[in-house]
Specification:
alpha+beta; five-stranded antiparallel β-sheet; Protein NKG7; 4 helices; 167 residues; transmembrane helix; two-stranded antiparallel sheet
């Protein structure tokens, strides 16, 4: 089904943009208190001076999971583009492979975001820190990846099955 393939690719592109924006910007947490600072996964900035964050356990895990999720998403996008040619190996079509890769990317991103949220929620609840737009973009990307994967599953089910029956 062409419509579900196109919607899947559009959602994948938007997810990739959201993940990369969230990964590379430093507005995950913002302190509106006396410090007026903002931090991301890589650095913290306060009064126009930025410092690199040390590789604490949860930050390293979040970085790794988000980067791995991005790699899976890129592979899923390539597979989704190949699905327009109705490529298949046995019963596995390019649409099914794209769906599996995108759903896996969503799972790894969900785990990464959950680790970050679980470690920082006490700072947000007890202080002047607040989650900001980079953080929320990654959460939106999680849901977009699952919807994109579902679109590819619909495209897989609508694609002709290879084999003697198709002849």
């Amino acid at each position: 089904m062409l419509c579900s393939r196109v919607i899947g690719i559009i959602l994948s592109c938007a997810s990739l943009i959201f993940i990369l924006t969230g990964l590379l910007t430093d507005y995950w947490l913002v302190d509106f208190g006396e410090k007026l600072s903002h931090q991301g996964l890589w650095q913290i900035c306060s009064k126009n001076v930025c410092y690199q964050l040390s590789g604490s356990g949860f930050l390293g895990a979040t970085r790794g999971l988000v980067i791995f999720s991005t790699a899976l998403l890129l592979l899923g996008m390539v597979s989704a583009c190949l699905s327009f040619n109705n490529l298949s190996v046995g019963k596995i079509t390019a649409s099914l492979l794209a769906a599996m890769l995108k759903i896996l990317a969503g799972i790894f991103l969900l785990i990464g975001m959950s680790v970050y949220t679980g470690e920082t929620v006490s700072f947000v609840n007890n202080g002047s820190l607040n989650y900001q737009w980079s953080f929320y973009l990654c959460w939106v990307a999680v849901f977009m990846l699952f919807i994109s994967g579902a679109c590819n599953i619909v495209a897989h089910q609508a694609s002709p099955t290879p084999g003697y029956e198709a002849v």
